[in-house]
Insertion element protein (Streptomyces endocoffeicus), 61 residues
Amino acid sequence: MSERAAPFYCPYCGDEDLRPSEEGHGAWECASCNRAFRLSFLGLLAKGLRHDPIDEGGTAI
Ligand SMILES: [Zn+2]
């Protein structure tokens, strides 16, 4: 888990020609559309990973 996750596609143009940016941490450059962007982890969703049982079955009255 020491390796950072790498994006497969540019979020702006969808190209795969991405390379790490010298801007540092989590920054990438797209050679296709010439954009630089940064990926950052925002945190876990409050909802969590549990499957909510309320979604199953529907309501019976
Ligand atoms: Zn791009």
